[in-house]
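Work package 3, deliverable 3.1, input record:
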Amino acid sequence: MRLLISIAVTILRAKLRQSIVAAVGVMFSITMFVTLLGFMNGLNQLLDGLILNRTPHVRLYNEMKASPVQPIERASSDTMVHHFIRSVKPRSELQKLRNAMGIMRTLENDPRVLAISPRLVAQVFFNVGTTDLNAQVSGIDVDQEVRYYMFADYLVQGEARDLATGNNAVVLGKGLADMMEAKVGDVVQVTTAAGDRALLRVSGIFQSGIADYDKVQCYASIKTVQELLGRPSSYYTDVNVKLKDILLAPAVAKELAVRFDVDAVDIQTANAQFETGSNVRSIISYAVGVVLLIVAGFGIYNILNMLIYEKLDTIAILKATGFSGGDVRRIFLALSMIIGIVGAIGGLLFGFGLQHVIDNIPFVTQALPTVTTFPIDYDPKYYIIAVTFALLTTWIAGWFPARKAAQVDPVEIIRGK
Amino acid sequence: MSDPANILEVREVNKSFHDPVTVPVLKDVSLDVKRGEFVSITGKSGCGKSTLLYILSTMDTDYAGEVSIDGERTTGLDGSRLAAIRNEKIGFVFQFHYLLPEFSVLNNVMLPGLKLGRKSTAEVEADAIAHLKELGMGDQALKMANQLSGGQKQRVAIARALINDPLIIMGDEPTGNLDKRNSEIVFGIFERIANEHGRSLLIVTHDGDLAARTHRNIVMEDGRVVK
């Protein structure tokens, strides 16, 4: 085999220009494949992260809804009458998640659960001069949110720690802070839905990347919000659950909803369009990458066919002096694989280089405060796929011409002169 | 059945070309070549002498009849076994020189030896240089094959044919494309190989003068051996 490979190398060197063209074809396609997939998946992760990082896998809450059974229906069992009296209205108390402490204790022992964090969400008004700005304040467990929901990444000013430790501290959304012309350290006045007033100190500004959200959202510690609303320390409206395996979310949500008699929504249901978008983008980039590799394969096929036509004399002599058809086939297959391997190595190096170049191109956008350059996913998976595919296509592209070379009849060539 | 004194035995070989109409080219050809014998085949153009040679060389397998080389029946063997027989037992010299243009003179000579794999690369190289020197080509060993003149190329081709110490050397008009002086040199080499080294040679030629200098001349006419 070493002799056959050295013959292949000699033939390649004699046809250096064609060989290089073929190898560059492979190199180019691998470069593009690796770069395209790295870039596309980097973007996917970035965009998914925008939502997925901050969204709980399962959210447990109580939805405010009308009472399904009105008292009058209990009094009369006559189904032929229509009841116009619907006097029982939803109470604000209903938003409270009943037995939140019990739910949390149970979930802490569930092996599928990575983290749980309670929330207390309330509607408030910020009083700016004579206007009231409607906003939603979320009382959060700051340490848990920083650890599992990247809360600190979205703080453009201030420190998450100040929110956790400071009494009556609040972090305002960027849009909200701009409207109120509030800076870190300022004190703002807030009115609850029940009409209670309080003063909060701005300890930070956050920017989520979704402008509408930043205009109405602010965060405080759970304790601050509980005090603001005058509720006891067991009062929560939501329990957010992060699972070890995100794919279990729909099943777990259903199970918990029944078990605790609460509403539960899972991340797939809440954000189905994100997953679809990511998948479509991945499929498109794989398709383009594979097409590039196949085109390179056709290039090799053409060049080898031409080479064999030019080397008929050589093939005839090799056969006359004792090389079998199989030997000739292996020589030309080796030739094709050398082109493929050289192209693949070059393609990986150039691909890695190009990924680095893209990774360093500045990419500043209002929507993504933590991103400064284009995102790239350096997953070695793409390199492995590219090389596997490239070697497979060169093997197939080389196999057909090599088989033709093996079938060359030396007598025809030698006598044909 | 086969006589161990014979290196080559041919029994009733028939062959026809079928394109576009069936034309018989060889009719009941039978002949023997003894070990150490220098045999020439002559005949007019189209009498089938080259066709016969390619059948004997094992490269053409499309015929009826039987061929044995060194006591081994080659008729009906598979392609890779035939390639091994060609590599080990037969040396070829063609009318056109057919060196591999990508390789140096030395590598051209060495390739069949490396393929046989019986000796180390260094030994094959030493053998190749010895053969080239013997043929007066020692100083050309490192040139590329396409830098040589016709007569020189043919001498390299002979060195290549000799590299595996073959039992028989076959030549298809080996002097046909050379001028008088080079023909004389090449034929002189053949005579030396036959007489000094005692190797068998089977040469197809149309040159009667050269044929007369071989041990035995087989004359073909119209696909038959006539003498």
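The first strand of chain B starts at residue 6 and ends at 17.
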